[in-house]
Amino acid sequence: METLEPEIKQTPISELPAPHGIGMAVAFDWGLAVQTAFTPIYALFQPSNMLKIPGLSPVLGNILFFVVTWAVACGFAFFGEMIRSGRNWARTIQIVANILLSIVGIISLLNLYQSIRVGNFWPLVTEIILVIFSPLIVWRLTRSSTAQWFKHVTPAQARQRHGGMWVWFIMLWGLVGGILQTFAAMHK
């Protein structure tokens, strides 16, 4: 009796349905990476008590803060790349995380009102991200065409579709969003 190896059938990218929300999700993740990496740099110029670690010298505390935040930033950047590469498990995590962040944004609307009343408009940046972009990411990533695309695309096909100028455009959005969110978070 012969043993037949199952054929792995690769669906041509042109036959897959067009996905939605991938650019927003990747820009969101890369924006988190920028925010996380930029925070310790910004904190050097705006010293704060929140960065002081009890029992450590300020220099050692700053070095530790840099190492930890940059490691976390690399994790966010890697996760964004997994979305760009069409990893279905990353899509699921992205959906759950953005649902939770949307809820946090809705709960934070009261704080936004209070901040605006005293003339602090920076929390508006965070609220726009959490109340507008997070639900949009969830909605677009949960479309059946997007789910089907993630289930059938290979990483090479996904990177081919989401490559070239697309990557630079998404990086720009991530950079702008991450820097704005850093300022918003540090001016609460």
Order of helices and strands: HHHHHHHH
Q: What is the CA–CA distance across the termini?
A: 72 Å
Q: Structural class of the helices, strands and pairings?
A: mainly alpha
Helix content: over 70%
Count of helical stretches? 8
Radius of gyration: 20 Å
Strand content: under 5%
Tally of DSSP β-strands: 0
Low-pLDDT runs: none
Mean pLDDT: 89
Number of domains: 1
Shape: globular
**How would you characterize the largest beta sheet?**
none
Keywords: Membrane, Transmembrane, Transmembrane helix
Transmembrane segments: 21-43, 63-83, 95-115, 121-142, 163-186
Would you mind describing this structure in some detail?
The chain crosses the membrane at residues 21-43, 63-83, 95-115, 121-142, 163-186. Keywords: Membrane, Transmembrane, Transmembrane helix. With 188 residues, the chain is mainly α. The protein has one domain (20-186). 73% of the residues lie in helices and 0% in strands. It has eight helices and no strands. The chain is globular. The N and C termini lie far apart (72 Å).
Spell out the key features of this protein.
single chain, 188 residues, globular, mainly alpha
Question: What is the gist of this entry?
Answer:
The chain has helices at 22-45, 58-84, 88-107, 109-117, 123-141, 144-152, 155-161, 165-186.
